[in-house]
Structure formats: C-alpha cells, structure tokens
From TrEMBL:
Residues 43-229 form the SGNH hydrolase-type esterase domain. Residues 405-432 form a coiled coil. InterPro entries: Ester_Hydrolysis_Enzymes, SGNH_hydro, SGNH_hydro_sf. Keywords: Coiled coil, Hydrolase. This is SGNH/GDSL hydrolase family protein. It comes from Luteolibacter rhizosphaerae.
Amino acid sequence: MKAWTFAFGLSLAGISAGAEEVAYVPRAPLAKLDLSDGDAIVFLGDSITHQCLYTQYVEDYLYTRFPKMRLRLHNAGVGGSRAWDALLRFDRDVAAYKPKYVTVLLGMNDGKYAEYLDDVFTSYSAEMNRLLEKIEGCGATAILMTPTMYDARAKRMQPPGGFMGPKAVTFYNSTLAYYGAWLRDTACERGLGFVDMWGPLNETTLRERRRDPAFTMIKDSVHPDAPGQVVMAAAMIEDLGFPRVVSEMRFSRQGEEWSSSAVSAEIRGVEGTAERLAFTCLEEALPWVLPEEAEAGVRLTELGEKFGRQSLRVSGLAAGTYVLSIDGVEVARASGEEFQAGLALHALAKAPQYQQAAQVAALNKRRNEGPVKALRNEWVNFQMWKFLEAQVAKNPADEAEKQRLAEAEKKMPGMEDRVKAAEAEARAMEDEIFKINPPREHRYEVKRAEG
C-alpha cells in the first residue's frame, strides 16, 4: 500500500517511477546581434511592418553605421497578418533569404481587437511557437518584438463607429501588453532576442500627454505614424546592443603643441595656435539621419545624442567665438567654452557627413516606397488568396466566398516573376546606396571669428 501511494504521488508530480529527472538548465536571452558581411536580416510582421517605416529607419542605421558590411535586409510585412498567415508564406518570404536573424512583430491582429480572450491567446501562442520552430529550422535566430501600442485615446478622438465596442477599446492595449509579456518570457526561455516596442511607445505617449492631452503618434489607433516608427527603430537599436557612438574626437593644447585622441576615427595633419586648430579626419561611420517626415520622432527620442553621437571636443582655445568649417564650409559657430564642453556634430545639418547620410536616407526611402512596397503588395494578394481558400474549405456552400476566391486566384499567375523583378530592383537601388555610404576624409578648421 505504501509503495503504491509513493508511485501515485510521483505520477501526480509529473514524474514516472524509475524515470530519470532532467535538470533544468536556464538559457541566456540574446544580448546583441553578431553580424558579418553577407548576413541577412528578415523583418517579419503585419501591416505595421508593411508600412516600411521602422524597418527603413533601422536600415538607414545599418547602412551608415556599418558602411563596409554588406548586409541583406528584407521586409516581410503583410497587412492583416497573423502568426497563422506568416506560416503560410514562410518558405518563400522568409526562409528563401537564408536569414541569420528574423525579427517578429505579430500580435496586433492576432488578439482580434478585443479584450483578453483565453481561447484567442491559446491559438496565438501555439501558432507563434510553430513559427519559432520554423525559424529555428531554417538556421536563423528569432528576435521577438512585443506588439505595438493600441492608442485608445486616439480611437476615442475619432468619429463614433467602427467594429470595436467600448470594452474592447478600453482593454485592447492591456491585451497587447499581456501578449508582449508572454513573448518576453518565451524569448528568455528559448534564448532568443527580444525588443520591447509596447513600452517605449506608451511611455513616450504618457510623457507627451502631460504637456498635450491630445498627443498621439498613432492617429488611427493601430498604425504608428513616422514619429512613432522612429520610437520603434530606436527601441530596436537599444535592445539589440548596437553601438551608439559614430565618433569622438578630442583635442587639447599644452603650450604651443596640440594633441589628439579619437574613437572610431583616424586623425592626421594636426596644426594650430591658441586661436586656430586644423586637422584631417576619416571616420568609420556616418551619423544616423532620417527623412524629414521622421524629424518629430528624432526629437522625441533624442536620436542623435543617444544612438548616433558624433562629437568634437577642443580644450585650450583662447576665450572668444570660433567658426567651425569642414572642407571650407562653415557649419557652426560656438564659444571656446562650448568647444571644450563638446560640439554635437551629428546635429549639424550643414556638415558634409550629415548631408551624405541624408542622401543615403533619401535613396533608401525611394527604395522602400518603390520596389519594397511593390513586393509587399504581391504578398498581400497571396495572403488574401490563402485566407479565402481556408474560408471556402470551411463553408463549401458559400457561393459569395467562392466568387471572391476565384477573383483572388486571378492575381496569382506570374507572381513569382513579379517578386523576382521587385527583388532585383531593390538590390540595384541598394547597390547605389553602397556607392554613396562610405565615409570620406574631411579637413576641419576651428578658427577664431573675425571681429
């Protein structure tokens, strides 16, 4: 009787009699990306990724921060996507690019725009786990990202109507927080990467609403506008351990001699007096510059200072006002004290490095608005076709759905050729980016202003 009771107790604890216990070995989540020339990163997601904004801004960072590293970057976002949809297009839209890392931004649609429903979450978590197995199976490492913010206040400021009831509007942002917490724990347990998108968007919104109660970065309540997408891009740079400094240059004068030191820059040809300093510099990277529509987000995140710092410090100048010129063009005026404290070069729009980075951003914007968007729209058609196939399989007598499926099928012939054409055009534009993104040598002069 005692032996039976002991065995029964073991079974209740999930341990079979005679079976060996497997020790739990905790895994460390990914701290940073380990990138090499030729590595591929796929950005997998829904319409928020399909917007080609936060992905574009991260691409701008990679193009300018690692100009010698030719990374292959692929947007795999499709409007309306859930984890289930991503599984259907995975082989061609993700695995075919042989990624080293796959960022995953899914959940906004999976929660069905409702208060938390256990069966909905159970389905989502099962499909996400299947997706993670697929990512691992193709030799890549997943980077899980929390769903973004649902802005209930922005929804309430819209005209009445829509498919969401008051309860769903009130609780959906909390539902997404729950999904994000599960993703964080899953990333930790599996040893994957993790990026918190939900937190920075909500925290920035709360901070700004103390000044302006009507503030929002998500006017339609779901899709972050360009400033909000800058917050998202900054969260990725923050959480994935990317370097924050472009370059640091320091100069000091002892007697008649100037000495220099630098981080991520090579300095030569230093000369000067108490009222003048000149030198030549070649930096390893360019500042992180984004298109004009993202400027509000740059200010909200202090993007340059936090993630693209490029500084010049000059100690030992005589008192007075000084002109900073680069390649003979005046880019700033500052006092000797300000030069000693450090001048933020990344904020100088007239500087040639800034202008060069702006050219990269402009060309990449054209790339995203052109072939990248065209490629994503092909996958929208594919996703609709697969969705309607599933609907007809569930309701074979529904003639209206059959008709919609027939219309969707008409868009499928030639898709692979159109996909390849868009891929080729995107690559050609990226070739142009890599022709203009190498840092160039510049001649600096700090000279006392006349008068």
